[in-house]
Amino acid sequence: MHLHHPTNSELDLPSVLHALSDPQRLRIVRQLADRAGPCACSSFGLDVTKSTLTHHFRVLREAGVVSQEIVGTSKLNTLRRADIDARFPGLLDAVLVGTAPSGDHGPAFGAPLTQPAAQA
Amino acid sequence: MHLHHPTNSELDLPSVLHALSDPQRLRIVRQLADRAGPCACSSFGLDVTKSTLTHHFRVLREAGVVSQEIVGTSKLNTLRRADIDARFPGLLDAVLVGTAPSGDHGPAFGAPLTQPAAQA
DNA sequence: CAAATAGTTCGCCGACTATCGTACAATTAG
DNA sequence: CTAATTGTACGATAGTCGGCGAACTATTTG
Predict the structure, then answer these.
(1) From the candidates A29, A91, A96, A105, which should be mutated to test the interface with B, based on the most B CB atoms within 10 A?
(2) What counts of helices (H) and strands (E) characterise chain B?
(3) Is the pLDDT of residue B105 over 50?
């Protein structure tokens, strides 16, 4: 099953900005940038259910912000940094700077990397 | 009547990105950047009604992207470039580069860049 | 096989969005 | 005073969005 990823030249500025305009997705992108390696969807400590998580990752992928690869039962996410930089130079850096932990209500994503619901 | 403008430190990244994630508003911002001077709402050649225009300018103002000043029957809009640059360095430049006329259906109204008010 | 793990899919909800049209207000020009 | 110009306010409408839960698929592991 091939997940659809927009090509480099298909990247659309309004779509990318929209993908980045949600706080949850912004947290995902910042963590992805910090970690600089593929991460499973469930490893971001977001306080939303799995289905909502699926939704956000699809928005990010369809806008071309992340790429996803299925490995086992996981879907590994990678920031498409080079592609976005090539098409919209400086955009990602600016967004990441503007999302710096200082001014952010940090979710302190050190502890609860588990789903809020769906377990007991 | 004082229009509400968020202060510099009230600028919120998701809100700004959301304001910029609409094609019409992106056109407004690009033109504002090109002209580098206050312009009335109706001088952007957008193919939407006046009420829709009012809506878009309100979104831009409430996100802190533009400032508005009432002069006569007009409302003059200015890009809050310095404020945005201070809070989110590089963001506006990146967005403006990514909005270059190449990929846009250029409005091509090179003529009426005149300010309706303030002179005659 | 059975259980656990990781995501997906679907339907639903409430809230918001972009758009319109009509009616209105305020200022400027004749 | 009477237009004309510029924008606002107020619905209304069709659509999107973020969120949930429940049921499902697929893979890995005991």
Answers:
(1) A91
(2) 5, 3
(3) no
How close A75 comes to chain B (CA, Å)? 26
Our CA-based measurement puts residue A23 at a distance from the nearest CA of chain B, in whole angstroms, of 6
Interface A-B: count of C-beta contacts within 8 A = 63
Are A11 and A88 a contacting pair, CB within 8 Å?
yes
Name the residue facing A93 among B20, B26, B90 (closest C-beta). B90
Tell me the pLDDT tens digit for each residue of A47-77.
999 999 999 999 999 999 999 999 999 999 9
Q: CA dist A100 to A53, A81, A89, B30, B87, Å?
A: 22, 17, 19, 26, 11
